[in-house]
Amino acid sequence: MSRIRDFVTPANAMTSASLVTGFLAIIAVVEANLIQAVALVSLAAILDSCDGPVARRTGGDRAFGTNLDSLADLVSFGVVPAMALYLGPLHAPPVLGLIACLAFLLAGAWRLARFPIVKRTSHFLGLPIPVAGVSVMYALVLWSPGPVAALLIAVIASALMVSTMPFPTLHAARRSTATLRVQYERRFRRR
């Protein structure tokens, strides 16, 4: 049986910081400080994008780190946007708004639960919850949607998370960008 000290790794520290950031974002949403909440969710997204590469470089218990990452993602990118939607534009249609917020939260949880089962190297199956959560938060701040638009945003984001649509991974996107850059350089060097 492992001691708690065995799980204290740089990657797990980053994931834990992402979870703390998500909790602080919930407090910001409750206190109606949406800009602070967006900043905190953005910080959680940065931490989330870094913890995986750090874990691959430093090793450690992958199962623990993966589970911790899913919990942090659910809070930072599922609970925070759902709360922001409900306490914001979706508070006006209380029953329908609550249903849309719950759908977003459940779709995010299902997306996270499905991730380790159907891993693909070239693409994600369904919209990743960090992308959905960050997008919803930015839409709330930059667009200030009314109840109908907010319902559409929540429903579309929920449907995309549980869909089987392929979305490129960062690794695949970098590889495609590098390939395009090489082709561009070859093409214009010939002239």
Task: Describe the fold and architecture.
- By secondary structure, the chain is mostly helical.
- The protein is built from seven helices and two strands; from the N terminus they run ααααβααβα.
- The chain has helices spanning 10-30, 34-58, 62-87, 94-114, 129-142, 147-162, 170-189, and strands at 123-125, 166-168.
- A two-stranded antiparallel ribbon has the order 1-2.
- The chain is globular, with a radius of gyration of 18 Å.
User: Can you give the helix content as a percent range?
Assistant: over 70%
Counting DSSP H or I runs of 4 or more residues, the number of helices is: 7
CATH superfamily: CDP-alcohol phosphotransferase transmembrane (TM) domain
Structural class given helices, strands, pairing? Answer: mainly alpha
